[in-house]
Amino acid sequence: MSGALDVAAVRARFPALADPAHVALDNAATTHRPQAVIDTLVRFCIATNANVHRATHRRAREATEAYEGARRRVARFLGAERDEVVFTRNATDAINLAARSYVEPRVGPGDAIVVTALEHHSNLVPWQQVCRRTGARLEALPVDGRGCLEIPETWPTGARFLAATRVSNALGTVVDTGALVASAHAAGLAVLLDVTQAAGHLPLDEGSRQADFLALSAHKMYGPMGLGVLRGRREHLEAMEPVVFGGEMVDRVSDRQATWQVPPLRFEAGTPPVAEAVAFVPALDLIEELGAESIRAHELVLLERLLGGIASIEGLELVGPATAPERSGSVALSLADAHAASVVLDISGIAVRAGVHCAEPLHAALGLGPTLRASVAVYNTTADIDRLLDALPEAVAAGR
Ligand SMILES: *Cc1c(COP(=O)(O)O)cnc(C)c1O
Question: What pTM was estimated for this model as a whole?
């Protein structure tokens, strides 16, 4: 599809939006799922429901084919090879896998792991732990007062690895990951990009194509909860030892020892989220059918309307970059009592989020308290934005 999105047609595919009282503006926390995803989950449970890679009966063969088909579909979406796609529980799990299996054995005292000040706790705490265990140093690239990152020209001494977000879940900052990854690679760093807030909202960028690892969660891109992806370059995955052990990931097992499967199965110990992986396929189909460019354009229209409306409401302080292209469709507003404001909005059926959005160090760095965050998805309408804008003055009064 080209040009403007037919939002009404998109909405009709999401049964959770049939409730006219519900204004879904907490999409950075999780998105709703289209009927096709729900149908695929249900159909798998009824018609297939077998474990993968084990038995040879018909349903087991079908389950394995569908699961491996989902892996190929994710690979195509990310411009990767099928054996570069590891299924995990979520983005957090994917980042932990890269941290434990790739980075931890490769760093020590004198080395530095670099993050940015924008990171979600999921892309910060695992690196803190690697540093604790190895004696490596953690360095955070600072942001300016608007929450924008400057691409470093020189990297910290001993820098070996960069873990950075493409889009901040807390502020909506879009990082120029193309320039960031190029600079990091030129300095010899390997890079993980957290694309959890980008995949499904922005076109896949050059930085994401070049990065050594990508992490994402299906549930933030219209897919099921309980499924994440670590995309790793084949040469890295092949060099990585597993960190979780058990069934599925082994090749040969004797009393005393075992050998491992090749990647990606090496990193998928135990029964994987098969139904969730299979049901992720129609979510990716939807994103590609609508087109990432059209989705981004639609979300920008909503963003501009929201920013325009906020500007004329007294007492509201917008945090983060002023506007696109440095901004996603997530908008954070600084309020003394953001929680009270979110409660008022909830009474009008408007789902937003208040808090520090799993980014406490970022809030501390900017001297920010909790914020009220509204975040859009492809199915939001200008009417959703207007309902939020109508309800905001009262919410702001409650949150002052
Ligand atoms: C939500 C989020 C995560 C963590 O995703 P989970 O599904 O909770 O594992 C990591 N990074 C960013 C930027 C996020 O928005």
Answer: 0.97
Look at residue 111 in the predicted model and tell me its pLDDT. 98
Which residue has the least CA distance to atom 2 on ligand 1?
A: 196
**What are the structural domains of the chain?**
7-30+292-398 (3.90.1150.10), 37-288 (3.40.640.10)
Whether the CB-CB separation of 21 and 384 falls below 8 Å is answered with no
DSSP state of 45: I
pLDDT in tens, 74-117: 999 999 999 999 999 999 999 999 999 999 999 999 999 999 99
Given a cut of 70, whether residue 1 has pLDDT beyond it is no
Is there an atom of ligand 1 within 6 Å of 197 CB?
A: yes
Residue 13 burial (C-beta neighbours within 10 Å; 0-12, 13-18, 19+)? middle
The answer for 94, left when phi > 0, alpha when psi is -120 to 50, beta otherwise, is alpha
Pocket test for ligand 1, best of 115, 149, 173, 220 (most atoms within 8 A of CB): 220
Question: Which residue from 87, 55, 49, 50 is spatially nearest to 68, judged by alpha carbons?
Answer: 87
**Contact 93/194 with Cβ under 8 angstroms?**
no
CA of 225 to the centre of ligand 1 (A): 12
Q: Please report, as a single letter, which amino acid is at residue 137.
A: R
Q: For ligand 1, is residue 183 a contact (CB within 6 Å)?
A: no
Provide the 3-class DSSP secondary structure of residue 373: strand
C-beta of 165 in contact with ligand 1 (< 6 A): yes
> What's the per-residue H, E or C state across 106-159?
HCCCCCEEEEECCCCHHHCHHHHHHHHHHCCEEEEECECCCCCECCCCCCCCCE
pLDDT band per the 50, 70, 90 thresholds, residue 40? very high
Q: How far is CA 26 from CA 254, 262, 306, 377, in A?
A: 50, 39, 14, 9
267 sits in the region (left: phi over 0; alpha: psi -120 to 50; else beta) called alpha
The whole-number pLDDT of residue 55 equals 84
Average confidence (pLDDT) over 218-240: 98
- The catalytically annotated residue of 45, 131, 148, 358 is 358
358 in active site: yes
